[in-house]
Specification:
Number of helices: 9
Distance between the termini: 82 Å
Order of helices and strands: HEEHHEEHEEEEEEHHHHH
Largest sheet: 6 strands, mixed
Number of strands: 10
Structural class: alpha+beta
């Protein structure tokens, strides 16, 4: 009796649990398309918008070949790929999952500080964090961080440990691009024309407002981009017209935002957009 290759055995197990697998060749990549599907000559998945193989019986089209059909997985058309496979991948989006692929220690540290705990799987260089729910996959959403879900594949490295939680807004927000600033970024709020005394009378009022804004950003558990923008907007609406804000104040807000994972560019864009919203960009 012919022994079942280990990757095939793993794939059938995954399929039985509703997780669509596909074989991986050396180099952790899917097998190339067959001659009929080379350069998408078959026309089966020209835009790669849906999961599942085209009419070709071979494991073609990368992540789109992933399937839970054991007849296809165990077919003679897939047999050679399984004999040569060095591992198994799966289509997270097809299983209703999202994988946050953390590629190094710095990325893991960011996730532990910024993301809700969930099931984790050790990888060669980092960790996979698995969430329940699908979204569009994207690479390079942060340094060392990729999103593997719809239209993507992830290596199967075991079930992992911990309780899987629902996909949070903070992960979904990683693939949302910030709107372009209306004008070149500026982080210094100019004093009003003609000068004038600060209506807040005492610096204590401003310091308390900045401290509250820092706390609001620090305690945010999701939708970090939106929280930072709304906080900047609130600070500027109260203190942006009298000229009492200094570079030291804005630096405190930027530091709090960057500690939650925002980049300096995102902070600057959010600040500039808030200035524009309030009509302060030309003050």
């Amino acid at each position: 009796m012919t022994a079942v290759p280990a990757p095939l055995e793993t794939a059938l197990m995954l399929a039985a649990h509703g997780i669509p697998p596909l074989p991986l060749r050396a180099g952790k990549a899917p097998f190339g398309n067959c001659a009929a599907c080379a350069k998408n000559a078959c026309g089966g998945r020209p835009n790669m918008k849906a999961a599942g193989p085209c009419s070709c019986p071979h494991p073609c089209h990368g992540w789109a070949a992933a399937t839970t059909d054991p007849t296809v997985i165990n077919s003679t058309s897939w047999a050679r790929a399984w004999r040569e496979a060095v591992g198994v991948a799966y289509h997270p989006g097809g299983a209703g999952l999202t994988v946050v692929d953390l590629d190094n220690a710095a990325a893991i540290a960011w996730a532990r500080a910024s993301l809700p705990p969930t099931r984790t799987v050790p990888t060669t260089r980092g960790e996979h964090w698995l969430y329940r729910g699908a979204m569009q996959g994207a690479n390079g959403v942060r340094p060392g961080v990729d999103i593997k879900s719809t239209m993507a594949y992830a290596r199967w490295l075991g079930p992992g440990t911990g309780t899987m939680t629902a996909l949070p807004d903070v992960v979904r927000a990683l693939t949302v691009k910030e709107p372009a600033p209306a004008r070149p970024a500026s982080v210094t709020v100019p004093a009003p024309a003609g000068g004038g005394a600060c209506p807040h009378r005492t610096p204590t009022y401003l310091d308390r407002g900045i401290a509250m804004a820092e706390q609001r950003i620090t305690e945010a558990r999701s939708a970090i981009h939106a929280t930072v923008y709304r906080t900047f907007l609130a600070v500027l609406s109260t203190h942006g017209r009298c000229g009492c804000l200094t570079d030291a104040h804005t630096a405190r807000l930027f530091t709090a935002a960057q500690a939650k994972g925002e980049t300096a560019r995102h902070c600057t864009d959010a600040w500039t957009n808030a200035l524009t919203t309030l009509g302060l960009s030309h003050v």
